[in-house]
Design brief:
Radius of gyration: 19 Å
Order of helices and strands: HHEHHEEHHHEHEHEHEH
Helix content: 40-55%
Number of strands: 7
CATH architecture of the largest domain: 3-Layer(aba) Sandwich
Shape: globular
Length: 218
């Protein structure tokens, strides 16, 4: 009979296996923002509905997502902020130990933003003193599902045409889905070109929420 340790490790391996697909990691990122239907996830991930459903079943078997039914539709969500923390730990480990991850971030992300991003504790302190305007650069449905208190939502495809509406008397801090999300990088570039003093938040909304910081939703 297998030992209890082996049996427990077998269960842990279900989670590890579920994370062994870049498509499933992407799906988890979308679900970290808001609950999604299979159709929505299929469009966001550029996968067929059948393929999306297969990936979701793997994640469900690993207890990383849960599902609810509404009529004929199925809606998925992550099972807790611990799932966000798991992905963050995976990302941190890869950044430390996998040279290709470092090369990719330096080549594609660091070139977009040469200023150091600010962390959550600094943002909290600066918002207490009303020193910054916080911009949420995510689609409106993700913003409505939850966001940093008093953040202003400007979806990524609207930043250029709405830039004149932003108060330029304060510094800007922008965030989006996570540290690898390009929405905030592109917004920061556009803002700086228009004379704003703008920085990124180091992490995205899911990491903010998982850390227990205050949130709002509509």
């Amino acid at each position: 009979m297998p030992s209890i340790k082996l049996l427990l490790n077998e269960q842990l391996s279900l989670i590890a296996k579920s994370l062994s697909s870049p498509q499933r990691l992407e799906i988890l990122e979308y679900l970290s923002q808001a609950e999604r239907s299979v159709d929505d996830l299929s469009k966001l991930s550029n996968l067929s509905i059948a393929n999306t459903s297969r990936h979701l079943q793997v994640l469900k078997q690993a207890a990383l997502v849960s599902v609810r039914r509404e009529g004929q539709k199925r809606f998925y969500r992550i099972t807790g902020s611990d799932v966000t923390n798991l992905i963050s730990s995976l990302r941190t480990t890869a950044e430390i130990h996998v040279a290709e991850v470092e090369r990719l971030t330096q080549t594609y992300l660091d070139k977009k933003d040469d200023l150091e991003a600010i962390d959550a504790s600094e943002l909290i302190e600066r918002t207490k003193h009303n020193e910054v305007t916080v911009l949420d650069i995510r689609p409106v449905e993700e913003f409505n599902a939850g966001h940093i208190p008093n953040a202003i939502n400007i979806p990524p495809d609207e930043i250029t045409k709405r830039i004149k509406q932003i108060n330029n008397n304060k510094d800007i801090v922008a965030y989006c889905r996570g540290p690898y999300c390009l929405f905030a990088y592109d917004a920061i570039q556009a803002l700086r070109k228009n004379g704003f003093n703008a920085q990124r938040l180091k992490n995205g909304y899911p990491e903010w929420k998982a850390a227990g910081h205050p949130t709002q939703r509509y």
